[in-house]
Amino acid sequence: MDTGLTNLKDLVIGDRTFQIPIYQRNYSWEEKQWDDLWNDLLYLKADKKHYFGTLLLKKTERFKKSGLKSFEVYEIIDGQQRIATILLLLREIISQLNGINDDEIRKELERLKEDYLKYRKVYKLELLGNDEEFFRKYIMDGEEYPDEILTPSQGRLKEAKSFFRKKFKELKEDSTPDKFRDFLLGSKQKIDNMEIIRYEVKNDTDAVLIFETVNDRGKELTNLEKTKSFLMHVIYLSVPEEPEGHLNQVNESFSNIFRWFEEIRDAKRGKDIKEDDIQRYHFINFYELNKEEKRKDTASRYLDCLKEKIRRLYREDEQQCLDYVQEYNRDLKKAFFTLKEIITYSEENGIGNLLKKIFSLERVANFFPLLVATWIRFRNEKEKIENILSLIEAIVFRVYAIGRRRADTGINLLYDLAYRVHRENLEYEKIVKELSGLIRYYEKDRDFEWDLKVENFYDRIARRDKIYLFFEYEKFLREQSRELLNIRFEDILTPKFEIEHIWPDDTSKLNLSEDLKEIHEQCKDKLGNLTIAAKSWNARWGNEPFETKRKEYQNSTLRVQKQLSDFEEWGKEQIEERESQIIKFTMDRWKI
């Protein structure tokens, strides 16, 4: 094929097929891009042509044969998303034309399929990896979808087909049969006439260099996709002969990484985690700092730092550069798999319960690098994992929840610790010592006790954290009474439960003297005057005097309420007594 201006019909029809080179990303277009393409064609006037952009190709030395026919194989360096989508759209047009009651059109459909989609067993376009068979069978051949979609790109291909099918269905419902047939034929003609600037590169090195330059076109690449293409680019440059084996390793790793990320995102714990987050957590564990660098700062620009490091190694020693790229690839794969294990861990045991608690407190982001590092290191030593998780939970509760420290408090210490666990095999005893030291530094026992005693405890501490404290106290009281715990923390977190003021915040039903009003104001928001209650219970009894509520406490299913019926009356003295009881429990429960 000659370089220059052509149309899609002349590009696709002929004795040639197209493949996606291994360093490319998988199919990534989504509804915005499909909708743009649809509208471009829908509103394009019949006498106008749609400009489809530049297509970068590389002719290979491979051929595909079917009977007497032989097809040249071209790799698509840039333009995969557009070509895959337009062929998918053409496939749907052919399917819609098959339903038209017109014998002349039906006779031409087989030739259309051979020209644009598939000649016998030779497909016009072949995608990457697991997507190749999916694109053949379920998109081009129109077979039923399998029960399991293995990759995110397969899901997007399926959604793209559904998107265009829905658009055609809407038009069909609003048109006469003749108008709908004319629309289908007109759309096919518009696609045939799409203008393309075709540019052909000569070799693999040129191909991957150009791809690295232009791969931000169309739908913007994620950093993870940019990392994949960059690693492959470096491998091409570092391995002058037969780089396919190295490239296959990277491609296989990233296929797994993208699949595991979908599992992470589909899990309740992972719904807010992004690809970039996980890659940044791994970078914290993997990257060796220069003396003047801090992990928090480098983590925010991890991809730039990674590229700078690899480029520097390439200039100094190509083999050392290749070794580093391969190590990074293996380690990144391990990090994604490990985080998938943590996010989806569901066993009802010590580890499972501790993970539930840490995620329930919603301050886990600072600890992901350390969680991944320690999980890899001690995955077969459950007691050590449990002890580390217990310390993380204590940091979250003492330092962030009760101590109200800033969200990034201790982050460089945690990041450095995660790196030393992962790259320097820091001893278990030192990990425990450093985590305990972090607690003592930011929320020592004296500070912890003071923060529990503050007069404005109710306003100062977040609702979730107050509920967490009282839920743990409820468990403690039930253990003492040898009662089963028949309620979950997730249930108490719902709007069905509230924090109740035992001595009511609203004093309209209380007969208080001026002196008592002052004492009430000082005591009402203290820890000792708070408990958990069902919302319906609180709405009915919450503002009643203690002597009225005391009878209701006796019948409560919650121990933290039932225990209150032991008091004959309620005021400052009782609040301080109960506060002391809860603080004693809290200091023991989160002891270091």
Mean pLDDT: 90
Structural class: alpha/beta
Describe the main β-sheet briefly: 6 strands, mixed
Distance between the termini: 73 Å
* Low-confidence spans: none
Report the strand count.
10
Helix content: 55-70%
List keywords for this structure.
10 strands, alpha/beta, elongated, six-stranded mixed beta sheet
Describe this entry's structure for a reader.
With 592 residues, this protein is an alpha/beta fold. The chain folds into 4 domains: 4-214, no CATH class; 223-343, no CATH class; 350-443, no CATH class; 453-589, no CATH class. Helices cover 62% and strands 10% of the residues. It has helices spanning 8-12, 31-42, 80-98, 103-116, 129-140, 152-173, 177-192, 204-214, 223-238, 244-266, 275-286, 295-300, 302-316, 318-343, 350-360, 368-378, 382-402, 411-423, 428-442, 445-453, 457-460, 463-481, 489-493, 514-523, 535-541, 546-554, 559-562, 572-589; strands at 4-7, 16-19, 51-66, 69-78, 118-119, 122-123, 125-126, 195-201, 497-501, 530-534. The strands form 3 sheets. A 6-stranded mixed beta sheet has the order 1-8-3-4-2-7. The mean pLDDT is 90.
